[in-house]
Amino acid sequence: MIIDSHLHLPVDYPDFASKREALLYELKKNGVDRGIVIADSELESVIGSVRDCAELFEGSEVISVIAGISPNFGFETQLDYCRELLESRKIVGLKVYTGHEDFYCTDLCLAPIYDLAAEYDVPVLFHSGWDNSHYAVPELLKKLADSRPENVFVYCHCFYPKLKECFEVLSDCGNVYFDTSSVADDESLIPQIKPALEEAMHHMPTRFVFGSDFGSCSQKVHLKLAESLDITVEERELFMHKNAERVYKL
After folding, report:
1. Where does the Amidohydrolase-related domain lie (predicted)?
2. What's the predicted TM-score (pTM) here?
3. Can you name the CATH fold of 3-247?
């Protein structure tokens, strides 16, 4: 069983119907059983707004949806819509694009998102690493996680490429999970990425979910990295599907 917990609609297709079919084909081609599509926080987007993605995959037994949300785009209206989707179980989490957008994970303007997620017991995801990484550095996320034990947080990309630093800082934060999407993006960095993942998975086996960031990155390459990890059978099952099933209540 494989669940890819970090997917986006691909951009190189003319409409959302064809994007949907391309994504489902990619899962089938790579032997992935289920996936989670993350919507953009913008109200109009080539990777789909919350409304686009929720409607596109409504009733799907293969794809679940996470809502992107931002204080910068019709915030109150989006909060109300996400509440409606959570109430009807049409989304399984919320994501804020720290770094892509100009706010820190600890900013007070995000409190309504965290409150909503805690109310419906769903995780909040963060973009981390890459460019503009200061908006959600591990030390800030630790501060947030410690201050909000009622929330579950998912740290996408594991502060790529500084995975070791990420795991060291956040190891004691039991309400923080790690989404490995995009960590196989640069083949030259695999020699430092792989041992950091293996060590952390041995230490925190229940806190990792597999993701590829398909739409931006190669799902096949991320599956290859996952398959190459020197971890136990039990750790692999947790990583490839069981943790995602628990965190996202699939």
Report:
1. 75-250
2. 0.96
3. TIM Barrel (3.20.20)
